[in-house]
Write a structure and sequence with these properties.
Helix 1 packs antiparallel against helix 3, helix 8 packs antiparallel against helix 13 and helix 13 runs antiparallel to helix 14. A hairpin with a 4-residue loop joins strand 18 and strand 19. By secondary structure, this protein is α+β, with helices and mostly antiparallel strands. The protein is built from 16 helices and 19 strands. The longest helix has 18 residues. The chain has 4 domains: about 90 residues, Uridine Diphospho-n-acetylenolpyruvylglucosamine Reductase, domain 2 (2-Layer Sandwich); about 120 residues, Uridine Diphospho-n-acetylenolpyruvylglucosamine Reductase, domain 3; about 110 residues, Alpha-Beta Plaits, CATH 3.30.70; about 100 residues, Alpha-Beta Plaits. Strands 12, 13, 14, 15, 16, 17, 18 and 19 form an 8-stranded antiparallel beta sheet that branches.
């Protein structure tokens, strides 16, 4: 319970309307988009600038109150669930574009701006931020940086952290620091910026980010190709990558994912292993590359090969890909979801996919496997019947087997969703004794342990 005296301090710092403790708002901030159990906070704060964030953290630090930052509550590993109660610091009102530097291909933004909204504004300058995840229409920049999110274009452009040049961050004590540089190259001192990227709000609260940009991608070419077997689609992917064709995206959807999409979007896609391959560049060269890709896929006996002819056709295909999550969730009223993402080395993708099929068969659970096959990042979403008493436990066991196999293959327990709550137990398996070093770093930044407690470390 947060005392009236402390609430008054927050109201003095933020204003009366920015300090909320009504049941509806508290309930909305008790969970995110994950399936992890909800936890009611005691208070929700809505700062509008860096100075207000600093004041909030100073009050929280003085009173040893847990602080959970959030943006749009789209996290899939419980990253925004206030496990220790306390305060939720909602940064969604901080959504300004501070400054665009067109000649430097850079922009400074606040953390609450949504990805697609940013790119719509950047289009006025013929600029583009390429590293957004599939959730860029609903997810905020701050959350993407905090989880070092990846996405469909990661195979060519990397993940969000690769495009962060500098950060303004408020520490647990309320101190404001700036890390990184607007210089394209900088090797001065420790790379604290990269340490903060992916730290999930456990080291500090991001209040501004300087991002590097590219010119708008004016010409895109999208291929949709289907195969009878998963292993054929994987073999085609490896051939494309080895042939130096530089795809902007290579996405994989298994037959289960397609089935969910067809029902949800009223489509008639072949319910087979499917690749979506996007190329960026001049029309003549890209059409030549598309033909080379067709021949590589032909060797793996594709059943259909479509080169989208219009922007509208491309848009509908990508809308189908982005609909996997809501499609799976809407598949039946009594189903629940255990989402997960892992990464494996490119050469081990065939072994990983074979293992997923084995676990699915042995468990008897329905799984939708899809993701960024071009960089070895997969989402395996396991559905279970919530009316069956041991349904959740069976799903967790199956998910654990898949994550452990990814680690055994030399991969990672999470490639873009972050550790949050769901992957804490696997972190030790992946990093061993270095976990203790990570905890010491956490203690330097946050000696009282008030920042997003319960995340990353068990």
């Amino acid at each position: 319970m947060i005392s009236n005296e402390i609430i008054s301090q927050f109201k003095a710092a933020l204003g009366e309307n920015s300090v909320v403790n009504d049941e509806t708002d508290l309930s909305r901030h008790s969970h995110d988009a994950s399936s992890h159990p909800s936890q009611m906070p005691g208070l929700v704060l809505y700062p509008v600038n860096t100075q207000q964030v600093a004041k909030c953290l100073k009050i929280a630090s003085d009173n040893r109150l847990p602080v959970t930052p959030c943006g749009k509550l789209t996290s899939l590993e419980g990253n925004s669930v206030p496990q220790a109660g306390g305060i939720v610091l909602d940064l969604s009102s901080m959504k300004k574009i501070i400054k665009v530097y067109p000649d430097d291909f850079q922009v400074i933004v606040e953390p609450g701006i949504v990805g697609e909204a940013l790119n719509q504004e950047l289009a006025k300058y013929h600029l583009y931020f390429p590293a957004f995840p599939a959730s860029s229409h609903i997810a905020s920049i701050g959350g993407m940086i905090a989880n070092n999110a990846g996405g469909m274009y990661a195979v060519k452009y990397g993940v969000v952290g690769d495009w962060v040049m500098a950060l303004e961050v408020v520490l647990a004590c309320g101190e404001i620091i700036k890390v990184g540089s607007r210089s394209i190259k900088s090797v001065a001192g420790f790379d604290l910026k990269s340490l903060l990227v992916g730290s999930e709000g456990t080291l500090g609260i991001i209040t501004q980010a300087t991002l590097k940009l590219i010119p708008v991608i004016t010409q895109k070419f999208l291929i949709k190709v289907c195969f009878p077997l998963v292993k054929q689609s994987v073999a085609a992917t490896l051939s494309i990558l080895l042939s130096n064709l530089e795809p902007g995206a290579i996405e994989f959807l298994d037959a289960s994912s397609i089935k969910h999409i067809n029902h949800y979007k009223s489509l008639r896609w072949n319910e087979e292993a499917t690749l979506l391959i996007e190329l960026h560049g001049e029309e003549k060269e890209m059409k030549a590359r598309a033909e080379r890709i067709r021949k590589l896929c032909q060797k793996e006996n594709y059943t259909s090969f479509l080169l989208a002819q219009t922007q509208e056709e491309m848009k509908k295909i990508w809308e189908g890909r982005k609909a996997v999550h809501p499609a799976v969730m809407a598949s039946a009223p009594n189903l629940a979801l255990v989402p997960g993402d892992v990464g494996v080395p490119i050469s081990r993708i065939p072994d990983f996919m074979e293992w997923v099929e084995k676990v699915q068969k042995e468990s008897g659970l329905t799984m939708a496997t899809f993701g960024h096959v071009g960089d070895g990042n997969f989402h395996v979403w396991i559905t279970y019947d919530r009316t069956i008493p041991d349904g959740l436990q069976k799903a967790k066991v199956a998910a654990g087997k898949i994550v452990e196999q990814a680690l055994w293959l030399g991969g990672t327990c999470t490639a873009e969703h972050g550790v949050g709550i769901g992957k804490r137990d696997f972190l030790l398996q992946e990093h061993g004794d270095t976990i203790e070093l990570m905890k010491k770093i956490k203690n330097v930044f946050d000696p009282l342990g008030i920042l997003n407690p319960g995340k990353i470390f068990a």
